[in-house]
Here is the input.
Amino acid sequence: MSKGAQIAIGACLVALLLGWYSYTNLREATSFKYYQTLDEFLAQGASIEGRSLRVHGYVASNSIQRDLETKQVRFLVQNDPPHIGLAGGHALNVVYQGLETPDLFKDGAEVVVEGRLQSHESETVFLADNVLAKCPSKFEAEGGIRDAGERGDGLKL
Here is the structure.
């Protein structure tokens, strides 16, 4: 077999593998899911029930309940951080199957929950398969932008 035929067969094989990979990972758009804010999520209404979604929000103060018997964590997600003093507004009732939550998961934490909306007898809950707690930024300036040659403690570099 000539060298050109070997290269052509190899290129076709690579193209077929890339095509198969793209088809299997992108057909349900599960690989590249972006999150929605809570307001965007709630605006869609009942049309999203049962679909896999990601929702961004903040854990409402004093809403985390860990049930050791059923191995569930229940909490509320709201659109705005609780520490800024705004009224809570709408909240999403979240049930996470499992007790192992991220280390940064606490009242007021910024979270992204992955799961689906499901209606039970009298309540609608978001059944979370995954809870992601976002790390608060430690690198934001506290009082505006500092001089590039000044450290955070006021000393010059």
Notes: Residues 1-31 form one domain. The first helix runs from residue 3 to 26. The chain is about 20% helix and 30% strand. Helices lie at 3-26, 38-43.
